[in-house]
């Protein structure tokens, strides 16, 4: 079976990966005649955004140095995500291939699933409420409606979702404090 697992840095994403490894993919590890599973791990970085900053009578554009820095940071994040994911795969003795892409995550995941002719797409769920999902959009919701293969959404346990929400709130407070210090 060809399975694609969409990953990001969230714990919900890694919960979905580990759930798939434990419940879907290790059923033929010890069978000699079984067709091996093919696992594709996909992480999509959002596209670069160039910004125009008004600076009095002049306009300042985002420099290539800033864009290079963002690209380097995104590559570092992808590498960390894949390192962690591959470690989980190796522990379960499952081989996986990694693919880092750039673009809108929901569109790129669906396109990759179609191009690779996967049998199943597995994505995690952040547990957004209806209002947040309407404004922010949901990768899992988009994939359910646009992917050309079955989609499995793995919802994390309530404890994990609660811890993730607390960590996000704490990160926002820290970012705001750092922004105030920098100003």
Automatic annotation (TrEMBL):
It comes from the Eukaryota. InterPro entries: Rossmann-like_a/b/a_fold, Universal_stress_UspA, UspA. Residues 2-155 form the UspA domain. Gene3D superfamilies: HUPs (3.40.50.620). CDD domains: USP_At3g01520-like (cd23659). This is UspA domain-containing protein. It comes from Saponaria officinalis. The lineage of its organism: Eukaryota, Viridiplantae, Streptophyta, Embryophyta, Tracheophyta.
